[in-house]
Amino acid sequence: MSSITAPDDEASDGADSVDVDATGQTDEPSTEPDDAPEETDDAEYTFDDLSVVMGTYNEEEAIGTVLDDIERVTDGRAEVVCVDGSSDRTPEIAREHGATVIEQEPQGYGVAVREAVLTPDRPVVVTTDCDDTYPMDRLPDFLDAINDGADVVSGDRLYHGAKSMPAFNRFGNQSFAALASLLMGERVHDTTTGMRAYRREVVQDIGWTENTGLSAELLIRPLMRGYDVREEPIEYAERLGETKLDPIEGGAAIAKSIVTVCLEERLRRF
Length: 270
Hints:
It is built from 8 helices and 9 strands.
């Protein structure tokens, strides 16, 4: 039985998150897929085991701040990988901050991020965006959750309201989560967040197919295959620089990806 650790929508004691069984049942026999991962007693991971990865495209306004934050929070011990298709100074700034830069022709969000998550050989991979919207100060908490047994830790931007997010985008992200929850039969709160931590074997063992909708796919496939997926509430800041995603065209592509991935994962169970 797959389950997701998510914020309790009715909690009143101020706790950030609680364990929620996705079906609300505890006594039924397990129905996890045969390829669901077995729990292992891995040694505790540190920042030396962490890679922070991102796709970058003309983010010279924010990339230095993001990389400074990662270095500060991890004492410079985390590896940073940027897959870049920029025409501005983004790759130069990234290299100046010690990041590994893989240059490729711009082919969309998913192509860059897929390359980024599959490149590192460290056992824990964290994705983030390079626009300074995600709190790098939470990296220790994400690593703690992995050490606690999580396979995927997903940052929930909407839990605290995401007031810095444009209202149209916020409505869209809430709609994506509702659609995914309906199709999966399991409640999720933020399917399109860019900040997640993964055990390396998760990103290596699953074949990723989506482009614009990759962020949703990176949550849906592990969850529907029985991995331990947990949502962690995070603050979301106003972005530096201009957004590259058209909200209408991009939103339609994400919704299509959610439907496609959910149906594929249901069919693979037969």
